[in-house]
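Table S2 (continued). Query chain:
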Amino acid sequence: MHLKKYEVRSISEAMERIRRDLGPDAVILSSRRIGKGASSRIEIVAAMERDEGTAEEASAEKSWRAVGEPGRYAEHGDRWSRI
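Corresponding output:
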């Protein structure tokens, strides 16, 4: 699964960027408003399921899920947690 975080001014801007970057089958996992007033933005985390590909790619994906990356999310059973 490929995750990507966006900070945008509007939902329509987010949808355009998500479709362009992740494709029409991407899903939004979370959204929240950041800041107040004219400078407020929306943070959206979206995901796209990847093809399994080679065994090497699948192994790298499992390693990423186990270790994680700063500011990213990791899958834990049936829920996602911020790392």
